[in-house]
Sequence to fold (98 residues):
Amino acid sequence: MCADFRPAVVVYTKRGCPLCDGLAANLEGLEQHIDLAVSKRYIEEDSQWHARYQYDVPVLVGLTPAGDEMPIPRPSPRAAGAFLLKWLRTHYFDKLAA
Fold:
């Protein structure tokens, strides 16, 4: 892994989506405890994102050191704290290290 790489996840969302807002907020809560950048991409702002994700939001992806998107299975809407961190380790951080 690149020495200057910072792990990052993206939540594909749309305005007015409570599940999206909850997932993003829970991920942002982890930023205080681990080195992780969290961002949101609103599917209404890009026609390709909209076509791809309009029926699936929230969609969670991790970014690789090359800048590629790595799909991360969507956790339970109630996932937070230690459970969400374990989820990210299993489905993102461990795969980055492999």
